[in-house]
Amino acid sequence: MDLFARLKAAASSDWQSYVDHDFVRRMGTGTLPQDAFRYYLVQDYLFLIQFARAYALAIYKGRSLADMRAAKAGLSAILDLEMDLHVRLCGRWGLPPQAIESAPEHQATVAYTRFVLDCGMAGDLLDLHVALAPCVIGYAEIGRNLAPNGVDALTAHPYRDWIGEYAGEAYQQVAADARRHLDDLAARAMTERRFTELTALFAKASRLEAAFWQMALDETGN
Known about the structure:
The chain is mainly α and 222 residues long. Helix content is 81%, strand content 0%. The chain contains 11 helices and no strands. The chain has helices at 3-10, 12-19, 22-29, 34-61, 65-91, 97-101, 107-122, 125-146, 160-167, 169-189, 192-219.
């Protein structure tokens, strides 16, 4: 097993609470209320701003050009792919980028993003990428699970664009690259004793991801 698979297995209950959350299941069936998805999307845009900073921190902390290029790819995926998707989808509800950016951050957004940034500031590059992994690699897994027969089979699915973004080849490649880079970092810096500490980081990030989904349901009464 690679490091990501080991972390998932060691934190399986926390991982499942995230990737199999009611929000995700209802999005997959197309029964997620639009107001819950819209609330999530605005908060996720604010979330991505902070995650872009985390990848910028990873560039700074890189010990090699390969590390820096890997972080740059993650930063580009956020700034050039994910945020564009959010702007496009929010535009359908008449929400321009300025309105999204000026929305107040929910406590769940603050809790998760600052946790990741703190992992990066206090720890090394491996700590930071383990804290980032549930998001960048987890969304690829969720997208793939919600489109088992491919994106084209979703036809008129109300959340086709979102699912298609994360199930699509471009994002799947981003996640695969992130997974390989995690292994490379582990080969240089991980001991079995440290694995226990990394599992705790991974588990907490997964719980914070689950809380992020739940936030959208709670705030919209769904």
